[in-house]
Every structure is written in C-alpha cells, then in structure tokens.
Amino acid sequence: MRFVHTADWQLGMTRHFLDADAQARFTDARLDAISRLGALATERSAEFVVVCGDVFEDNRLAPAVIARSLDRMATIGVPVYLLPGNHDPLDAASIYTSEVFARHRPENVVVLDSAGVHTVRPGVELLAAPWFSKHPAGDPLTEAVVAASAPEAGVIRIAVGHGGTLPVGAQDQRLIDVAELGARLDRGELRYVALGDRHSVTQVRPGVFYSGAPEVTNFDHKERDSGSVLLVDVPEDGGAAVVEPVRVGSWRFASREFPLSAERDVTAAVAALSALPDKDRTVVKVGFTGTVGLVAKAELDAELEALRARFAAVELWERKTDLAVLPGEDELESLELSGPAAAAAEELLGIARSGGERAADASGALALLYRLTRQDVVA
C-alpha cells in the first residue's frame, strides 16, 4: 500500500519581506506544489494523500484563497485527507465548516473531523487526531491512540497527527508521546505515524516521520529540509514502511554570512550571492561582519541594491551583522571637504574609531556622506 504523506501547506501564507509581485508568485508556488504532489501520486500509483495539519495558514482567509486551494486539490486523482491543525483548528470559526468550503469542496477531499479510526478502504485505516482549538490541554494524537482498540488482523493502520514530540525522559502532556507510538508500532497495531508541524523532513524514530512543508516557509538556517513530500510504502506482509522524500517545492529562503575586511571580500560576497539560482524565487537574508573602509562599504551598498532588483527579496540579517566602517585618512581626503563639512567628518571619524555606543551610527553617517559626495562628483 502506497500513499503520499504531506503537511503544513499553510495556504494563504504571506511574508512581510515580499513585495506585492513576489508575494503573488509565492502564493502561486504554494498552489503549484499541490499540483506537483498530485502528479507524483498519479505517477507513482499512490492510493491517497494525507495532509497532517495546517492545510491553511489561518481560519480567517479570503473566500478566493479557499476556493482556489480546493480547485487545486480537485485535480489530484486520489482521495485527499485533510487534518485540522493548530493553524486551522476545527473550532467555531473553522474553515472546514464554512459555507465557502462546503460549496467548493471536491468529492475527493475528506476532512478528518473526528478523533479515531477512519476507513480508507477495507484493510486500510487512518487513526486521526484533529485539533479542535489552537491550544489543546493535551496531545490529541496520544489521546486518540490510547483510546483506540487494536485493529483487526491484517489491517494497515496509519496514525495521523500534528504537533511537537516529547523528548525521551521529558514530561509534557501537550506533546506527542513517541514512546507510546513506538510501542504500538512494535506490536504492529500501527504501521506508520504521519506527523505535521515541523517544516523540515524529520525521522523521529523508525516509522515516525514529519513530512515537512511542500514549499519553503523559513530560512535554511532554521528550516533545513523543506520543500518535499514523503512517498510511503507500507508492505502488506507486515514489514517496515519504506519512506522516500520527493521534492515538489520551487522556492528557497537562503541565509548567508560573510566576513569582510577589504574590497575583495565585498566582491567575493557579491559573487557568491549572484551565483544563487532561480533568483526570482529566492529570498536572501545576509549578514556581514568585520571592518571596511568607505569605498568597500559604498560598493557593498550599491551591489546589494542591484541584487534586490534580481531576487524575490534581499534582507539584512541584523542578528548576524556587525560591520564597522572605518575610513582611512586618504578616503576622507578624497572627498575634498572643507569648512564645517570637513570638521564634521573628522568628528565622526573620531567617534567611529572610539568603539563607543555611538560608533556604529558615526560609521553609518560617514558611509552615507561618502556615497552622497561621490554621487555629486559623478553628477
């Protein structure tokens, strides 16, 4: 028996660092990922798709977002099982009970709207644990697993849940008890545990997996293995499930750090960023450390501005940025300042070299002064 395990589609997601054009492309890419996983299900003869929570970004979405999402699901040629998660719980305001969802829901889409066993076909069951609020008192999956009776002999039962997992030796009733799930996997009561919540593909233990999000949602220093779905084969004879990650995402959120001390370092950093592929689908968060002169800083600022026109977005990684600008005497002299302007530049240079609280502001002011002065010269 083969199926597609996915989660955390978060349809309707927006990102503050994307302008309107890039956001539209990002939104379409999340829908395109659905189409690609549907094509995968057809190509690899999967029986169904299970989405383990957070199908939608929020319960308060525009009707058009919901309708377009369901239209994409309708193109998948097999049943699609949707589990409400913490972003889209089955509460009083739930998308899943809304008029727009009922009007546009295709026949192949099934909401796992109750805790317990749902029959896919004779011999295959989903033990589902939907979220009924954003902050449940306990863990819905562990509770559902404990409450369920053992399946009949020969039945393949897949547990479907959402949320964090309980570390070994820890105690927190809000987290999924992997030890409890593992015991039932070992006894054959469960054949696989499909989880959502982590946005990177993660094996918690044999037979227990997070699929990750099918399209990237965060930068790669936090989300290292997103953009995939899992193709899961569960042998009829009782053997262990075989899990294959398959990439369906097309975007990248790249975080990069560069130490700078000279103009050549700026050139190398810009070259590394320029080498990233698919720039219209790539967001870069970049941090710089070190000390540079006015010429190098002006070059860096100009190159970053040029890169912003090519990438979906370029963000300064403030937590990883500690770049001092200390001009040399020859750089100040090249500005050919006189009178009050020259005196102000000398004062700023002294503050920048002091390393005090105002050093960064003084460095920034000098860099701005240099750029403005050079623009005047060019003009």
Structural account:
With 379 residues, the protein is of the alpha/beta class. Helices cover 34% and strands 22% of the residues. The protein is built from ten helices and 16 strands. The chain has helices at 20-43, 63-74, 99-104, 140-147, 178-186, 263-274, 294-308, 329-334, 339-354, 359-378, and strands at residues 2-6, 49-51, 80-82, 109-111, 116-121, 124-128, 156-162, 192-196, 202-205, 208-210, 228-233, 242-247, 252-260, 282-292, 313-316, 322-325. The strands form three sheets. Strands 4-3-2-1-11-12 form a six-stranded mixed beta sheet, covered by helices on one side. Strands 5-6-7-8-10-9 form a six-stranded mixed beta sheet. Strands 13, 14, 15 and 16 form a four-stranded parallel beta sheet that branches. α6 links the parallel β13 and β14. α1 (20-43) runs parallel beside α2 (63-74), α6 (263-274) runs parallel beside α7 (294-308) and α7 (294-308) packs across α10 (359-378). It is elongated, with a radius of gyration of 27 Å. The model has no long low-confidence stretch (mean pLDDT 91). Residues 1-103 form the Calcineurin-like phosphoesterase domain. Keywords: Exonuclease, Hydrolase, Nuclease. This is Nuclease SbcCD subunit D. InterPro entries: Calcineurin-like_PHP, DNA_Repair-Maintenance_Comp, Metallo-depent_PP-like, Mre11_N, UCP033093_metalloPase. GO terms for molecular function: exonuclease activity.
What descriptive keywords fit this protein?
six-stranded mixed sheet, 379 residues, alpha/beta, single chain, 10 helices
